[in-house]
Amino acid sequence: MKKGMILFMVSILVACTSNIKEETTMPKEETITTMTTTIQTTGETTTTQEIIETTKAMQSEKDIDDYNSIYVIINKQRPLPENYEPSDLVIPNVSLMKELYLRKEAAKAIEEMFEAALNDGIELKIGSGYRSYAYQSRLYSNYAKRDGEEAASRYSSKPGQSEHQTGLVVDLAASNEVCYLEQCFEDTKEAQWLFEHSYKYGFVLRYLKDKEDITGYMYEPWHYRYIGKEEAKKVYESGLTLEEYFGLVE
Ligand SMILES: [Zn+2]
Fold first, then answer.
1. How far is the CA of 155 from the centre of ligand 1 (A)?
2. What gap in Å lies between CA 2 and CA 9, rounded to an integer?
3. Which of 62, 77, 110 is the last residue of a domain?
4. Average pLDDT along the chain, 250 residues, taken 10 residues at a time
5. One domain, residues 110 and 158
6. How far is the CA of 46 from the centre of ligand 1 (A)?
7. Which domain holds residue 57?
8. What is the Å distance from ligand 1's center to 223 Cα?
């Protein structure tokens, strides 16, 4: 009964929100809060938090499933198809370890971030960006041959399961490449700068410490995911993994 009630209210809420959004310039978040407050005065058992959470889950549902959305969630349970390749790949105009590509929006954001870092005396480099399904396939089988399948699956992805195939992901390094792809990168001033500032440019640290059971991957202080400035700030402040933030974890 309670759940039905929430869903009913959320339906109204979503309907109202979309109407309002078209008519005014009120920011989405504010609109939801206003509507929620109104509804809450007539409801007895539904809390504001419950409505906001259910609404957020409903709104994000479509985006995280769309391969071309900047919110798409890719992990071991949610792979990309073999033929998926972003249509807007460009070479970012920053220091690179090799020729590599990112989706246009992410490339622009990384250019902005590297410039800001430089202003703070931090020199960064991209080590890896977009990876095709075929490339990931070769990479994974090499790692599996070297370290065994179980060990390889903790730090590398099977083809289709790599977020790098979205073109929204970078592996970052210090310009001197010290501790590149190693846990000790965490202690470099470059990594520290990224922990503190990357969200302002739309990037979040994807594989957080002690969250391997949720993300499926060990802590990677170098692997950053572009998700847009607005969402990155919220994710950063929440301290959650993307899986938790988008309600994919019970
Ligand atoms: Zn990576």
1. 9
2. 11
3. 62
4. 47 41 37 40 51 52 85 96 96 98 98 98 98 95 95 91 97 98 98 98 97 95 97 96 93
5. yes
6. 41
7. 2-62
8. 5
